[in-house]
Amino acid sequence: MLIRSFEEHDRLPLRDLYLQTRLHAWTWLDSSAWRPEDFDSVTKDEQIWVAEEDGELLGFASVWVVDDFLHSLYVAPAHQGKRVGKALLEKVQAEFVAHGTLKCLVKNVSAFEFYQRHGWLVESRGDSEDGEYYLMGFGG
């Protein structure tokens, strides 16, 4: 598996991966307005890392570099549980300059457990339009 920087030709398959993964994981939310193009606004001006194997995109992570904020980490449903998320997370963590943070929806139990297994700690809680979230921190 290769972890590499986003290239423009990744956009269309990552749009689909983003939508399909959200539909799979966030079943408690109203998805009627979700579109593949949402990927573009969610990752705008962020560093995007892509997991690829044999030409297939397996997942991606996007980071708001200025704040060491992991904004998105998505692994295609067919590739979850196969260390793709771990590889992406390790790449992101290696790029942090200081203390990394992320927000994880409270109802996204599997993601929360994933981050905890990899050393992330809850720093606080908050509310968003998608529901209550944990603010989690790593390192520094």
UniProtKB/TrEMBL annotation:
Gene3D superfamilies: 3.40.630.30
GO molecular function, one term: acyltransferase activity
Domain N-acetyltransferase residues, every copy: 1-140
Cross-referenced CDD domains: NAT_SF
Enzyme Commission number(s): 2.3.1.-
Keyword Acyltransferase recorded: yes
InterPro entries reported in the protein's UniProt record: Acyl_CoA_acyltransferase, Bact_Acetyltransf, GNAT_dom
Keyword terms of this UniProt record: Acyltransferase, Transferase
Annotated PANTHER family: AMINOALKYLPHOSPHONATE N-ACETYLTRANSFERASE-RELATED-RELATED (PTHR43877)
Name used for this protein in its record: GNAT family N-acetyltransferase
